Amino acid sequence: RQAPVKEADVNSFRSLNDCYAKDTNRIYYFGDHDLSNNGIHEIPCNNETFSPLEYPYAKDNESAYYVYTKITGSDGGSFLVLGNDFSKDKNHVYFKTNILKGADAASFMVIPHEESPDDINYTKDKDHIFYNNKMFDEVAMASFKALGLGYATDGRHIYFHTGIVKNADPATFKVNEVRYGDTDAADAKNTYWEGKKTAAEL
Fold first, then answer.
1. Cα end-to-end distance, the chain, whole Å
2. Can you spell out the DSSP letters for the chain?
3. What averages of pLDDT result for each successive group of 10 residues across the chain (202 residues)?
4. Integer CA distances (angstroms), 44 to 63, 65, 70, 97, 200, in order
5. Beta bridge partners of 6
6. CA distance 7 to 41
């Protein structure tokens, strides 16, 4: 049984996409992100300029929104969705609804990799490398490459997320996009699972 949308204007109510709807006075979100109030949430925004973007984002002429939450400090006019919970505007970079501390909006970009270009976890600006919302302490930026499945290399080390994979050989290290048993990567001497050496034989 579907729940009624309280206070909605029946005559002007219409769907914007699978998650958002509007009437003359309000914008609504419906989904399983938060099932309180039957999953229906009114978004306090500019009704006339509100537009859905790539899920889970939307914007109006003033601000941007993540699902139904306003991204504090965001600028709707310059807001861009980058993918995998990253976004930016002329002032800030965001991970979900939070400002990514230390990131330079003008130079910020995602770091794709050839095998899985949609697997976006690593990002960079002119001075830093990030994994999700965590900044690397030290890394060779010029040679840094995302390898997939949370792995990356700068030619000196192999990283899983932001941690160095101990004793991994960058020259022979390869990620197994199709995971084999309890291994997701290997080099000439060892196999690995989520950044840790396994007992599997090569």
1. 55
2. -PPP-TT--TTT-EESSSSEEE-SS-EEEESTT--GGGGEEEE-S-TTT-EE-STTEEE-SS-EEETTEE-TT--GGG-EEEETTEEE-SS-EEETTEE-TT--TTT-EE---SS-TT---EEE-SS-EEETTEE-SS--GGG-EEEETTEEE-SS-EEETTEE-TT--TTT-EEEEEEETTEEEE-SS-EEETTEE-S---
3. 72 93 94 75 95 96 96 97 93 96 95 65 92 91 91 95 95 83 90 89 55
4. 11, 10, 8, 16, 54
5. none
6. 12
- CA separation for the pair 161, 194 (Å, rounded): 9
